[in-house]
């Protein structure tokens, strides 16, 4: 696994513009194989390959490059408090929690949320709080946040998330259709005003389902 992980860092991250030493350091230390669902085995080439991995319940563990690019785009500092929408396996959560002071993470699927919570406890992450619910409403109790990351794609930028971003804060969110999105960054200046949104790249995430996201399809409804 460690060989495959070193290859991932060099070939899929550094060679493609991920240079923040904190992001590379966190991803160099984290055992990605621990984030697969219980009982699901995979070869090192798969776990550390350049693709998203299915994790069951219609969801995926994001491609390493995307995790690196999104984390780098947040420009995290040690003392930051981060809100994450879409805990999934908890891999991205662990990358954030390796760098920032606190991570508040929200997941709508209770089964995934509980598995991720148990997994991150086992790996020793004590600076993460977990909520089962609709993350398009944010998590007001922890606001204002220094950074907000959404790891599912919605039709627009949820207003609740913008309102929970503090001065100097950065919000990174995939916005577009159910199948293809652009990764958008919105920054709040120190005077509280919102800067022009920036388009960072094209991306494909699973749908953000909720009040300020997509309505659930029948299969999404039956799974809940
Ligand atoms: N970052 C994750 C990838 C998760 S896939 C990882 O590294 O594993 C996106 C996740 O967003 C899915 O688990 C999905 O259930 C969740 N999701 C979708 N809509 C949501 C919402 N409104 N609130 C919270 N979580 C949501």
Describe the structure.
This protein is α/β, with parallel strands linked by helices. It has helices spanning 2-13, 21-29, 44-47, 64-74, 91-99, 110-122, 159-163, 218-223; strands spanning 53-56, 59-61, 81-85, 102-107, 128-132, 145-150, 165-176, 181-187, 198-203. Strands 5-4-3-6-7-8-9 form a seven-stranded mixed sheet. Strands 1-2 form a two-stranded antiparallel sheet. It starts with a helix and ends with a helix. The mean pLDDT is 95. S-adenosyl-L-homocysteine is lined by residues 59-62, 85-86, 88-89, 91-92, 106-109, 112, 134-136, 151-152, 206, 208-210, 213. S-adenosyl-L-homocysteine binds at residues 59-62, 85-86, 88-89, 91-92, 106-109, 112, 134-136, 151-152, 206, 208-210, 213.
In terms of quaternary structure, the protein is: single chain
Q: What's the total number of strands?
A: 9
Series of H and E elements = HHHEEHEHEHEEHEEEH
The percent range for strand residues is 15-25%
pLDDT averaged over residues: 95
The number of helical segments is 8
Strand order of the largest sheet: 5-4-3-6-7-8-9
Write the layout of secondary structure elements.
Layout: H1 2-13, H2 21-29, H3 44-47, E1 53-56, E2 59-61, H4 64-74, E3 81-85, H5 91-99, E4 102-107, H6 110-122, E5 128-132, E6 145-150, H7 159-163, E7 165-176, E8 181-187, E9 198-203, H8 218-223
Parallel strand pairs: 3-4, 3-6, 4-5, 6-7
Antiparallel strand pairs: 1-2, 7-8, 8-9
Helix pairs in contact: 2-5
The protein binds S-adenosyl-L-homocysteine (SAH).
